[in-house]
Amino acid sequence: MGFSIFSPTRSLDGVSGFFQVVFLLSLCLVLFKAVQFYLRRQWLLKTLQKFPSTPSHWLWGNHQKDKDLQQILTWVEKFPSACLQWLSGSRVRVLLYDPDYVKVILGRSVSDPGYGLLLLNGKKWFQHRRMLTPAFHYDILKPYVRIMADSVNTMLDKWEKLIEQDHPMEVFHYISMMTLDTVMKCAFSYQGSVQLDEQSHNQYIVSSIIRNSRSYTKAVEDLNNLTFHRIRSVFYWNNTIYKMSSDGRLFHHACQLAHEHTDGVIKMRKAQLQNEEELEKVKKKRRLDFLDILLLSKMQDGKSLSDEDVRAEVDTFMFEGHDTTASGISWIFYALATHPEHQQRCREEVQSVLGDGTSVTWDHLDQMPYTTMCIKEAMRLYPPVPNVSRELNTPVTFPDGRSLPKGITVAISIYGLHHNPRFWPNPKVFDPSRFAPDSSRHSYAFLPFSGGARNCIGKQFAMNEMKVAVALTLLRFELLPDPTRIPVPLFRLVLKSKDGIHLRLKKLR
C-alpha cells in the first residue's frame, strides 16, 4: 500500500510538530525576557541605592492611579532633594525637586530622540532654536497683544450670552479654543476665527481648519491622557502590543486628527505664499511670523527645512502654544475665584491701567505688577507642565556627591519643586507676595516654563496672553468658585482637572 504525503496522519503530525516548535521558541523568549528583566532590576537597585524610595511592587511600581501629585508632596517632605519613582519593576526614574539638583540637569545637553524643539538634540536643535528665536522678538510680540485681546473678547462675548446670574460654567473648553485661536492668528498667519461657528468660508482649506480645530482640541486631550497612561502600563511597553490595543488604536486616530489640523495650517499658508504679492509683502517684513520663518528660511547648509521638520515644529508650537497656556489661564482663574481679596485688588489695578478696557497695548502689560504676581503664584501652585523628563547622555554628580550613570532617566518634578517647603514656606497657601519685586529666591526654584538653554521659547508669548486674558476678564466678570464641583488637579503631560474647572461668572455692571 502506498503512502501519500497528503495523508491525514502525516498532516496532523506536521501541525503538531510545528506547534511544539512555536511553544519551545515562545518559552525560550519568555525565559530570556524574564532573565533580562531580573538583571536590569538588580542593576538598577544597586546603581540607585543612594536614592530613597517608598516600597514598590516588583511589577507595578509604586505609583497609585491619579494620586501622583499627592505622592509627590509626600516624597518632597520625606526625602530631601530627590527620590525614586518606580513605574514598574525595571522602569524607574529619579525624581528631582531641589533647585540645586535641577540646575545641574538643565545645564546639560540631553539625548531625547525625536523632532521639534521639544525633542531635538545637539546641532540640529541649536540650528532650529537659533532660526526660530526671532519669531519671539519683542517687535513681533508687540502687535500680538491686540490679536490676543480680540480673541479673549470673543470668548468673553460668548460667556455673556451663555451665562445666567451665578450660573456655573466649565471654562477650560472655552479657554482652550481661545488660546488655539490666538496661536493660529499670531504664529500661523490665520485670518479667520476658530471660536466662531457662524463664520462662513468659501475656501475648502479654511473651512476644513475650522472643523479640524474642534477635533484637534479633543485629540490633544486624548493624547495627553493616553501618553501618560502608556508610560505607566507594563503591558504597553511593546509597540506591537500597544498598536493592537484599544488605547493604541485611539492614540493612532488622535495623532491623525492632530496632523490633519497642522497639515491644513501649513497647506493654507503655503498656498497664500504662492501669490507673488503676498510673498513680496512677507519678504519686506523686518521680522517674520513663526510659520513664515519655517517655510522661507534656509538652514546653514543651504537646504530648506524638510516637510517633516516643518510639521514637527508646527505640531510642537501648536500644542505648547495652546494647551499649556489654556491650562495656565484656567488655573489662574480658579485661584483668583477662591481668593476674592486678591481678585479685587487685581481688578482695581487693571481698571487704573486700562480704564474701560477698549484698548490693550504692549506697554500696559508692564503696568500691572500685582496682577503679574498673582499670575506667577497661581502658576507656582498649578504649574501647567508638572513634570519634565530627561535621559542622561553622560554621567552626572549632584552637589551632595550622589551620582547617576549614563542612560538613567531623571524627571524634574516642577510640581514638587514649586511645593518644596524648604524653598516655599507654607507651599499650599496662595501668597502673591512671594513674587514681590523686592523678594528673593533660588533662580531654579520657580520654573513654570522650565529653565536653562532649553527653556520654553514662547514663554514671553504665553505670559503676555495670560496677562491679557486675566485683565480683560476681570474688567467684565467677577469670578466665583462652584462649591459643588471643586477642581482636583490631575497629573498629566499638562496639568488638568479631573472633572474640568467649573466657575460661576457674575457680569459686572
UniProtKB/TrEMBL annotation:
MF terms in GO: alkane 1-monooxygenase activity; arachidonate monooxygenase activity; heme binding; iron ion binding
Bilayer-spanning residue ranges: 17-39
Q: Which InterPro entries did the record assign?
A: Cyt_P450, Cyt_P450_CS, Cyt_P450_E_grp-I, Cyt_P450_sf, Cytochrome_P450_Monoox
Binding residues annotated for heme, in chain numbering: 456
Tell me the first and last residues of the signal peptide.
Answer: none
Q: According to the lineage, what is the superkingdom?
A: Eukaryota
Q: What is this protein called?
A: Cytochrome P450
Which organism is this protein's natural source? Myodes glareolus
Which taxonomic lineage does the organism of this UniProt entry have?
A: Eukaryota, Metazoa, Chordata, Craniata, Vertebrata
